[in-house]
Amino acid sequence: MTVYTIKDVSKMFQLPASTLRYYEDMAILTNVRRTAAGQRIYEEKHIHRLRTICCLKRTGLSISKLQMFFTYEEQETEHIDDILDLLIEQQQHIEKQLIQFQKDLEHVKRKLHYYSDIKTALTAKKMHPIWSDYREKQF
Amino acid sequence: MTVYTIKDVSKMFQLPASTLRYYEDMAILTNVRRTAAGQRIYEEKHIHRLRTICCLKRTGLSISKLQMFFTYEEQETEHIDDILDLLIEQQQHIEKQLIQFQKDLEHVKRKLHYYSDIKTALTAKKMHPIWSDYREKQF
DNA sequence: TATTGACTTCAAGTATACTTGAAGTGATAT
DNA sequence: ATATCACTTCAAGTATACTTGAAGTCAATA
User: Fold this and answer.
1) pLDDT tens digits, chain B, 139 residues: what are they?
2) Where are the domains of chain B?
């Protein structure tokens, strides 16, 4: 059975050790065992939990919602519908964000083309482009 | 020439009026004219600026980076490379996030299938599913 | 004309998610 | 053996992005 120190986990997830302790304080990372001297021992289940924490946090779930989610998970039978509701909502939220991000990427690409044409115009002394010509373009 | 009140703009972008004033304080929304009584008058250029602000903020740019960006834009000729660098970085950042969000969506979908199978198992008194069977699946 | 509502400024307050610092214990390297 | 490093707790501090409250001005409606 593989175990990890706080440093191992910190490196693995690119999270400061203080954040791992904070997640434990916030009760979203639970049942972390200790050595005789009090040092944290992380197991595979904590690695999996952290993957879920990072996934949900990245996509916009707050710490307090994470607390709810993991509380529900501990009482799966009673809270199965709460779990499903939360996951469905999160799924829809991610799908919306994906669509929005694609639009935002297009917006940035348009700006990039516009300014890159401005750079060309500046060096080659060509006509300065006009933003309205880029506003509707797909790149 | 169409103009807008703070309320119009607030509704248009689903942003509280206080946020629009804050963006002006932070100098990322500039040159807002006033009525004789001091009320803000927004023009098309502010609407375009706000679209860019929302796009860049949503995709992770901070207020201070937005300040830099719009400062560069005001001195396009001198800062053309700074503008391009910032936009290229933001483009790459969005692309990375898109890939990560797709993975995160898969993670949530896996969880959703898992818990929805648990719900079935609970009501139909079937075998309780095991998470490790879902961990690698694509939905 | 009075009052209601919408706007204004400016300073201070809030929410979220950590981060830091002090003080202490135990383990490791020279 | 001793110094240094890694970890510990707990309270307080920080960063970011707003939000709120008080006090005042102006415009419109009953």
Assistant:
1) 899 999 999 999 999 999 999 999 999 999 999 999 999 999 999 999 999 999 999 999 999 999 999 999 999 999 999 999 999 999 999 999 999 999 999 999 999 999 999 999 998 877 899 999 998 888 8
2) 1-74, 91-139
Q: Which of A44, A51, A49, A55 is nearest to A87 (CA)?
A: A55
Bridge partners of B4, per DSSP, are B42
Query: Do A88 and B122 make contact, defined as CB atoms within 8 angstroms?
Result: no
Question: Of A49, A5, A41, which Cα lies nearest the Cα of A23?
Answer: A49
Q: For residues B32 and A74, is the Cβ–Cβ distance under 8 A?
A: no
Which of A67, A11, A3 is closest to A40 using CA atoms? Answer: A3
CB proximity A46–strand D (7 Å threshold)? no
- In whole angstroms, give the CA distance from residue B87 to residue B31: 24
Considering CB atoms only, which of B52, B98, B109 is closest to A91? B109
Q: Is the CB of residue B63 inside 7 Å of nucleic acid strand D?
A: yes
- Residue A1, pLDDT > 90, answer no
Rounded to whole angstroms, how far apart are CA atoms B24 and A56? 33
CB B99 within 8 A of CB B105: no
- Which numeric CATH code is attached to A1-74? 1.10.1660.10
Q: Which two tokens stand for residue B30?
A: 């500039």
**Residues B49 and B29 sit within 8 Å (Cβ to Cβ):** yes
